Amino acid sequence: MTDLPQTSPRPGSAILGLGAYEPSRVISNQQMCQWIDSSDEWIRQRTGIVERRWAEPEETLLAMTAAASRRALDQAGTTPDQIDGIIVATVTHLEQTPALAVRLAGELGCAPCPAWDISAACAGFCHALAQADALIRAGVLEHVLVVAGDRLSDLTDLTDRSTAFLFADGAGAAVVGPSDGPRIGPVVWGSDPSQGHTIGQTLDWRQAVERSQPAYLRMDGQPVFRWATTAMAEVTRRILADSGLTAEQLDFFVPHQANNRITDSMLRHLRLPQSVQVARSIQRLGNTSASSIPLAIDQLYRAGQVADGATCLMVGFGAGLVYAGQVVILPGRPAGDDRPLVLADPAPTTPVPDLTLNP
Ligand code: UT7
After folding, report:
1. Which residues contact 209 (CB under 8 A, 6 or more apart)?
2. Which fold would CATH assign to domain 12-179?
3. Under a CB-based contact definition with an 8 Å cutoff, are residues 321 and 191 in contact?
């Protein structure tokens, strides 16, 4: 049998540039309480959220992802025509087809290139990054734009006190390209279909049309919380072990910004050294689904905390339920990036009891 030609593998891939976009409309907890029976104190204590950002009408998903992508391209020093693949992670692109990634290719002026969307909810950025890394190392693609964006406010029922205070909007992007050695660690990923019922839509699109009713996101928060606080610490341990680094060699821990109490619980299990900085961007940005990890990293850049070569452990988890994470080595802050960082008031959270880890 004749062998077919193969692409030539590369020694590694790296994140060459990162960018993010925070929408302009700030919604405080007090404003949120016009719509739901809740309080600033309850939201702060249960989640750590002080305020969140929602997109204005002109801040479409395409506009937000394009803005984040342009910042990532600038930091990488890469032009749109050098991009030969685009992966967009989103669950709020409200057209079934064409993919947002193809629209984004046109918006950015990329040369005709493969462009596709993935649905991995809040773990979308880490899933897309793993795909880009594998495709670049296999020699299939050279420069991949990894994008994560969601406008959860489009699918949030403002009268639903189990979700309205949590969900928010935003976008993030990374340019991934070849490097001399691996700068993106092995991905640890998986799914738990037995928990699939916990997050979803109130109606599927067909039911929404037939009943002339809007479809919203719905979540049964408690089981998701229990799953995240038990299973995700173990997943994080595996990500670190597979990276070959020790906890002492980590600079940043960036878990999906779902709830500060989930982060606190993971930290109690992981016992990371004090030197590891932990992302807490949920305070100002709420839960922005796929974009929460790149938005959190962007805050670290804007605080001037990221040196070239910093190590960062990321882990995303969400609807499916699905999870994915890896350790990455971050590029330095680009010259001239002096965007200010505005920090919210510290948000106290109530302690949760330690839970036994799943075997
Ligand atoms: O990003 C994708 C993955 N998603 C997540 O990881 C989210 C995971 N889940 C969570 O973060 C939490 O479950 C929530 C923040 C959504 C909810 O917090 P909780 O501590 O699990 O609240 P709960 O549902 O157990 O409710 C506790 C109490 C109840 O009152 P009683 O029965 O103790 O009197 C609720 O009725 O809080 C009440 N409550 C509220 N009170 C004020 C529920 N929602 C609210 C509210 N405001 N919005």
Report:
1. none
2. Peroxisomal Thiolase; Chain A, domain 1 (3.40.47)
3. yes
Gap from CA of 181 to ligand 1 centroid (Å): 44
Look at the block and give the residue holding tokens 């500060």. Answer: 260
Taking the chain, what is the end-to-end CA distance rounded to the nearest angstrom? 47
The total number of residues shown for the chain amounts to 359
Q: Whose CA is nearest to atom 43 of ligand 1?
A: 162
- What does the pLDDT read at residue 265? 96
pLDDT in tens, 189-228: 999 999 999 999 999 999 999 999 999 999 999 999 999 9
Question: Which one of 29, 33, 46, 192 would you pick to mutate in the ligand 1 pocket, going by the greatest count of ligand atoms within 8 A of its CB?
Answer: 46
CATH architecture of 188-330: 3-Layer(aba) Sandwich (3.40)
For the chain, the domains span 12-179, 188-330
Distance from the alpha carbon of residue 225 to the mean position of ligand 1, in angstroms: 9
> Separation of 43 CA from ligand 1 center, angstroms?
9
